[in-house]
Write a structure and sequence with these properties.
The structure holds two protein chains of two kinds.
Chain A: E1 4-8, H1 16-25, E2 31-35, H2 38-43, E3 46-49, H3 55-64, H4 68-77, E4 80-83, H5 85-88, E5 93-94, E6 100-101, E7 108-112, E8 118-119, E9 122-123, E10 128-136, E11 150-156, E12 158-162, E13 168-174, E14 176-184, E15 187-190, H6 198-209
Parallel strand pairs in A: 1-2, 1-3, 3-4, 4-15, 5-7
Antiparallel strand pairs in A: 5-6, 7-12, 8-9, 10-11, 10-13, 13-14, 14-15
Helix pairs in contact in A: 1-6
Chain B: E1 5-13, E2 16-18, H1 32-42, E3 47-51, H2 60-72, E4 77-80, H3 86-95, E5 99-102, H4 104-108, H5 111-120, E6 125-133, E7 143-147, E8 152-157, H6 158-167, E9 172-177, H7 189-198, E10 203-206, H8 212-220, E11 226-229, H9 231-234, H10 240-249
Parallel strand pairs in B: 1-3, 1-11, 3-4, 4-5, 5-6, 6-9, 9-10, 10-11
Antiparallel strand pairs in B: 1-2, 6-7, 7-8
Helix pairs in contact in B: 1-2, 2-3
Classes of the chains: A alpha/beta, B alpha/beta.
Amino acid sequence: MSKTIAVIDYGMGNLRSVSKAIEHVAEASDRVLVTDDPALILSADRVVFPGQGAARDCMAAISDHHLNQAVLEAARSKPFFGICMGLQVLLQFSDENRGTDLLGLIPGKVRRFPEQQAVNGQRLKIPQMGWNQVHQSREHPLWQGIPQDARFYFVHSYFVVPDDAGLVVGTTDYGVSFASVIAYKNLFATQFHPEKSADHGLQLLRNFVHWDI
Amino acid sequence: MLAKRIIPCLDVDNGRVVKGVKFVDIRDAGNPVEVARRYNEEGADEITFLDITASSDNRETIVHVVEQVASEVFIPLTVGGGIRVVEDVRRMLNAGADKVAINTAAVFNPEFVKQATDRFGSQCIVVAIDAKQVSGEGEPLKWEIFTHGGRKPTGLDAVEWAKKMVEYGAGEILLTSMDRDGTKVGFDLALTRAIVDAVSVPVIASGGVGNLQHLVDGVVEGGADAVLAASIFHFAEYSIGEAKQYMAERGVEVRL
């Protein structure tokens, strides 16, 4: 059956790679829409919520595009995939930009990696930029076909700390062990970029496109 | 643990890969999409395109190259060469580049780096530094920034310049030793170490790779977060898979 997959476009970051990666794994009959129209987002079968940049800019852009309600509604009601800032803004509060209120769907905070922390005698570089391992700490249908501790591509300086540790389905070590993937009912969100993570990333998106809740 | 990255670099002139790429089973070694696809299959962690198109009339060709590659190669892409104004950055990111490398323009107009990072975020702005040793024998080591392919000195100290660029928002430093570029005798490890220790962001070492041990030295002795090489991969002397295997056997964390 043909599906419509909406990629939410609120002007934060380049969505071309995200939409191309989804087109790459979707069925030929599926439609991939890059849109900021709340009506289209709410009528889509699946929603992808990417994002790049600073927390305050992201929140301002979501608000400017009148997307707060549509994002929250979609995240509660249909298969929903958050990527990078599209994960972080779902929480309540970020330390970034001297404190930024977020969408508040998921109780918890967003914290910065500790400065000046040394790992194996070397200073921890911030942002974390590159391929790190994701430990599948809980079973989830979207992990199908992806090996335990597979590497994905990360670019970030902040990470999520949900109040409910039960939401964490993947963890990653970078100076600290942090929640790199969280999932709750119809929602799945990653700190890394599946659209830049070669075969494992594409497999994850393929699993999302075929996810039956 | 975060893996050290291996990044093949392709010079692109008028939309074609130049400086020769030799893969026996590639139909058109000048086609950036085919070459990028091949590097992706071999396990490249990222691909860097350096646009060396001389005529500004033909600048648009690199945009199309990035669009095509980004539509089918799903790893990070960096584009450098001819990035002078914020609009250049925007065009590359919209085409599908994940990062843009700013080189000469940063030297002539450091504020440009600030503007670009304010607008698009540090994560996508790489500052490329071309450095040459200027200290004589017996003197404390000192490197200076050079432009125009290493011909023009700027008087800027490389370590101070790297620090300044990070203050201005650079999310990564692409460090090329102009003394070593093309020599195949290995990275300038002292330079690499000096920059790595001076800045808080990742550093990509470049210039001088001639064999796989050089890659190991770059990350182990130089402390680099990533290593960039062109000719050893282009001429199929080594595959990226072989390079990673070699590094892994010597205790370097890589994505296999």
